[in-house]
Amino acid sequence: ARTFTGMQSDPGSSAALGFDLTWTSGDVPGPDAVWLPAVVPGGVHESLLAAGLLEHPYEAENEDAVGWVERATWWYRARFEGEAGAPAILHCAGLDGVAELSWNGTSLGRARNQHRPHTFRATFAASNELIVRFPPPLPAVLSDALAAREIEVVKARQTVVRPDDPPLPEDELTVRAGRPQLRKATFSWGWDFALCLPSRGVSAPVVVNAPSPAVRDVVIRSRDIDVHARRCTLAISADVSGDARVEVRSPSGRVLLDQHVGGPRVAIELELREIELWWTHDLGDPALYTVVIAVDGDANGATTLRHGIRTLELDRSPNDVEGGRDFRFVLNGRPTFMRGACWVPPSMLVGSVEESTERDLVQLARDGGMTMLRVWGGGVYGSDTFYEACDELGVLVWQDFMFACYDYPDPDGELARETALEADHQVRRLRHHPSLALWCGENEVQAIHEIVNGVRLPRGRGWELFNEVLPAVVERLDPDRPYWPGSPWGERDDELLNGTHDGDRHAWEVWHGNDVGAGGPTEFASRGEQVHWHRFDHDRGRFISELGIHASPELSTLRRWSDLSAGSSLDAPALLHRIKDTPKDKGFALIEHEAGLPSDLAAYVDVSMACQAEGLKHGVEHYRRRQPHCGGTLVWQLNDSWPGLSWSVIDYDLVPKAGYYFLQRAFQPVIATFAPGPDGLALWVTSSAIEPVTLELTVTLGPLDGPSLVRDDVRVRAEPWSSAPVWSYRRDVPSDWVAWVSEAARRVPDNRRFGGRLKDLPVADGVATGEVIDRDEDRALVRVSADGYCYLTRLTAGQVGARFSTNYVDLRPGESCDIEVRGLRPGADLFVATYRTAPRPLALP
After folding, report:
1. How is residue 501 annotated by DSSP?
2. Which of the four, 96, 107, 565, 646, has the lowest number of CB atoms within 10 Å?
3. How far is Cα of residue 576 from the mean position of the Cα atoms in its chain?
4. What is the C-alpha to C-alpha distance for residues 606 and 326, in angstroms, rounded to an integer?
5. 3-state secondary structure of 611
6. Using omega within 30 degrees of 0 as the cis cutoff, is the peptide bond preceding 264 cis?
7. Residue 167's pLDDT band (cuts 50, 70, 90)
8. CA angle, 185 as apex, 180 and 186 as ends, to 5°?
């Protein structure tokens, strides 16, 4: 469990306030109320945890036991001195939930938007008291008439989207009807990957009479960029409170401009030569220029921003080969294939996510070969740390606005007003980041409405938000970036918004089993076949912004947060509690079809990880072979919000699953992949690199547990932005064979394709051993060797925080692989294991 500490109170006329808190059933706290120190930034749950009054909601099965927190009314109290009669300005950077504020007994106003700051005006007394009241949020925003109407909408939606689920209970219907009315993370009341744990409280500092910023509304734009001549015009503008000094430094730190400017307006145009471009990490260096604006006499220091010079277009040109239009990002004139994942909040308790957690996740994404992260619209906007990490590490960001999956009725226009204020704040905050690639209006709102109702989202149900309010704000404040109305979205009248000829799509034929726009087979021999990843093969989508398969985290993660053990059964309540998708055995059909359904948890962890890894590998390789007709794949999802079972490839404790390492290899700039050919098997080479590369490939085929019966050497020149077959085997491949491709210089990762399903192959017969061949204080280099065919060969650590250069690899008989382990703490343990075998300890010198 994590430990939370409160902010120190610093009374005065310009200070971040310290708070106490208490709770009631709705009435004003009485004189006997118990007030506790409040954790700020943070929330109610963190404060109760710090006081030892709450069991951690992630541990055991505590979700229901902490539900009283949501139903109570919470009171935050700050007391401080001031100059009687002086004006006071109260700036609240984050109020999570519906908040009602009073100052010395007088109402200041109300807040109902987690996603923007709020400012209030008051008058000081000699001694002052600020009360922030957080009532139960949904009753505070949902009238009886609107609730009754929207509950019927939710019922109709549920019968179409989740036809196999039992009817929702009344309280759950009310939650789903009410949450679109409150500008709060939609996933707060539970999702198919998240428990019901709505955070509440003061999630960011509250400051009284903070000095007005000396530098405001900074805009930095690179204009007239000539990529080939390496020149551009850097335009810098800002409002300043006095004379200012403006400095521009190159990525290497060389001063390019040092100029004093008279206030109140900075407006500079600087001609740059020999510019260094910002690239994603796979194509070049994410070069960052530094812009510093310092106002003379400003005691609060300078405003410093990082700026990347780059061009980025959303190419939607007509596709002359397949019809429709392309959907791809062109960076500095280079077409790209985006490889990445969707980002969800790293904790349900969004006010206390540590900066190091967000930075570690972005680093893991970059190390996993990812070039784009999509910030999902059901959560919260990322912190400054998140975007700064993406800037520095060369990872682009697809930014959803925070709307997801439900209609957004707005009978009085209040939602549109709040949305405009929220968007104004977030666009101003984020527009200077070179990693920011696209603003997207929503997640699945308009697409689900179309699937359920057979028509596009009408006016009055949210259409105005995504097609008028949000694009107007982006056009006014960030005109250099594209706006996209939703994800998925397409503009053809003859197919679903989630279609294959235009725009982006969510590929949920796999896992959920319904055809949501890809087409393909309509009859299946079993449910397992209906949800299997071979359905990816029929998808001709132009940009896949979601695809996913569910998997367990490592057993060690589950054991840290529950009483589950290796021998726990698959119907153990502690396990079912951590599965939020419904029905809870939905993944069993896929596992049974592919690998056979195990009976205990240790084996289930392995087979679910194997199915996720194989399925994501299969899908990503298919879409990459479709380059240039497909422009990217973003896996659902990168991370988790609590230690549960989900589609994530990195669990809540930041431990990567097998799927992460399979993606790490499938996301390399140049890959060799097998696919069904005209009469047997074909080998393709796909390049998303910036330069041509010559490959010396060796292809072998034969039984998994025997010698190779086919061997061919293939020389290939892979051009940038290309994908083509380079070799074929014109016979059926037996189900117990494996096709293998390797490259002596390791310019592409080894790859393989099995002739049959996992349960048809002797994948659990090999034995792997490990040897430490180099060791430093917090690092080890381990050589893992195979006796027999070793599937999902991996190292695991007896601690959180260890990082592996690669993992979950296939090794053929007699082969070895070197794995570097970093972040080992004193006394750490390492274990070596293969598919469905118990981990064996590895001695660390």
Report:
1. S
2. 107
3. 24
4. 38
5. helix
6. yes
7. confident
8. 45
Handedness of CA 819, 820, 823, 828 (dihedral sign): positive
Q: Is residue 741 within 8 Å of 728, Cβ to Cβ?
A: no
Structure tokens at 543: 């940009």
Instruction: Give the angle 282-227-479 at the CA atoms, nearest 5°.
Output: 90
**665-688 b/e (C-beta count within 10 Å ≥ 16 → b):** bbbbbbbbbbeebeeebbbbbbbb
> Which pair of structure tokens corresponds to residue 777?
């204080």
- 597-635 as b/e: b if 16+ CB within 10 A: bbeebbbbbbbbbbbbbbbbbbbbbbbbbbbebbbbbbb
- Report residue 538 as tokens: 């029929």
Where residue 405 falls (left for φ over 0; alpha for ψ -120 to 50; beta otherwise) is left
Segment 115-138, tens digit of pLDDT? 999 999 999 999 999 999 999 988
Q: Quick one: tokens of 295?
A: 């106002």
780 pairs with which residues across the strands?
775, 821
Whether the CB-CB separation of 277 and 227 falls below 8 Å is answered with: yes
Closest CA to 655 of 770, 777, 802: 802
What residues contact 25, with CB distance under 8 A and at least 6 apart? 72, 73
Tell me the C-alpha distance between 71 and 51, whole Å.
Answer: 20
> Rounded CA gap, 85 and 77, in Å?
21
Phi-psi sector, 170: left (phi>0), alpha (psi -120 to 50), beta: alpha
DSSP 845: -
> What's the CA gap between 113 and 197, in Å, rounded?
17
Residue 830, SS3 per DSSP: strand
- If one counts every other C-beta atom within 10 angstroms of the C-beta of residue 85, the result is 9
Contacts for 517 with CB less than 8 Å, ≥ 6 apart: 488, 495, 496, 498, 499, 500, 505, 541
DSSP classification of residue 458? P
**Alpha carbon distance 129, 135 (integer Å):** 19
Instruction: With beta carbons less than 8 A apart as the criterion, state whether 827 and 841 touch.
Output: no
Cα pseudo-dihedral 728, 729, 730, 736, rounded to 10 = -140
Q: How far is CA 584 from the centre of its chain?
A: 23
Q: Which backbone phi and psi does 797 adopt, to 5 degrees?
A: -115, 150
Does the structure show a pLDDT above 80 at 595? yes
> Within 13 Å of residue 566, how many CA atoms lie on the same side as its CB?
7
Q: How far apart are CA 313 and CA 334, in angstroms?
A: 10
Residue found under tokens 């809540």: 652
State the chain's maximal CA–CA distance in angstroms: 91
Q: Is 283 helix (H, G, I), strand (E, B) or coil?
A: coil
| Calpha distance 396→223 (Å, rounded) | 20
List C-alpha distances in Å: 672 to 256, 345, 695, 740, 764: 44, 34, 10, 10, 26
Amino acid identity of residue 629, one-letter, is H
Quick: pLDDT tens for 401-450.
999 999 999 988 999 999 999 999 999 999 999 999 999 999 999 999 99
Angstrom distance (rounded) from CA 214 to CA 460: 41
The span from the CA of 552 to the CA of 579, in Å, is 9
Q: What is the pLDDT of residue 14?
A: 55
Structure tokens that stand for 586 in this block: 């939905």
CA angle 734, 737, 739 (to 5 degrees): 115
State yes or no: pLDDT of 2 exceeds 50: no
CA distances from 2 to 45, 349, 352, 811, 824 (A): 12, 11, 10, 38, 20
Average pLDDT over residues 244-270: 95
Rounded to an integer, what distance in angstroms lies between the CA atom of residue 712 and that of residue 710?
A: 7
In angstroms, the CA 80 to CA 128 distance is: 5
DSSP state of 469: I
Name the residue among 197, 201, 203 with its Cα closest to residue 55. 197
Q: Which helix (H) or strand (E) holds 504?
A: none
